[in-house]
Amino acid sequence: MYWRAGCLDFRERRLKTANALVRELGSAVQPPTGTAIVLTEEPGAQPNWVAAAGMMEAALTDKFSEKVAELRKTDPLVDWTGVDKGHAEFRRVVKFLSAAAD
Length: 102
Description:
The protein is an alpha+beta fold. It has one domain. 28% of the residues lie in helices and 18% in strands. Strands 2-1-3 form a 3-stranded antiparallel β-sheet, covered by helices on one side. It is globular and about 30 Å long.
């Protein structure tokens, strides 16, 4: 990404948190109750996250893919503060969302 006069460089704006990004995906897609939306950290990469979802019908899968593509452009970096690594080398946020994303 490059900087242009009149535009904010991505480093100059506040990063979304990993949890906020998962909620945004869930709100946009509105998966069936019990469907997991997963955001996994990709340290050192840009974007620094990868998204996945549980099994959904084709239309929702397409909607999910479109939203992920949009967010990878608008929010290539997310703030992983507050997300524990656990036993892994990377952090992961998993939400089981419904139509009324929690």
